[in-house]
């Protein structure tokens, strides 16, 4: 069993939901997982207590959360000495055409932080129209029309979700296998119950 930190930044909550699914998947695999919102983290987070770290951020106006950037910059040396992963949530990742733009956001993140995670995942985000003010709702509808040709149906609140949850779980399992391999930790046997069950 490994001790894993999942630290994330979120705007309207979709990255929090992705982090929760990753946490659940790692927990089901038998690992001890701590999830922390970057905006609510303590002034210092002692990474010595963790075997691996996943960092997640969403894209708003072409940038990641400053709290996530600050965390990575402050902990770059520690992150470089352990298994790590990064996941990014954005509307750009919702379409094949937008994947290059999403990759560009990640490249800018690497340039700014000088951190090179071992694994990277890009996931489609969500349009939370029910949480936007009038002007932001108009702006987001214009962006969606320009960038998302096949927009899924909105729910009763008008919200639209683009996250592929199977892809999120596959990413979490891949990260778990990588961490287990690096640390020499055996994965749970098929059908074996974990401590969380």
Summarize the structure.
The protein is of the alpha/beta class and 197 residues long.
Polypeptide structure, described:
The protein contains six helices and seven strands; from the N terminus they run βαββααβαββαβα. It has helices spanning 14-28, 66-74, 76-80, 99-113, 134-147, 165-183; strands spanning 3-8, 32-37, 52-58, 84-90, 119-124, 126-127, 160-161. Strands 2-1-3-4-5 form a five-stranded parallel β-sheet, with helices on both faces. Strands 6-7 form a two-stranded antiparallel ribbon. Strand 4, helix 4 and strand 5 (119-124) form a beta-alpha-beta unit. The radius of gyration is 17 Å and the shape is globular. The protein starts with a strand and ends in a 14-residue tail after the last helix. Mean pLDDT is 84; it is low at 193-197.
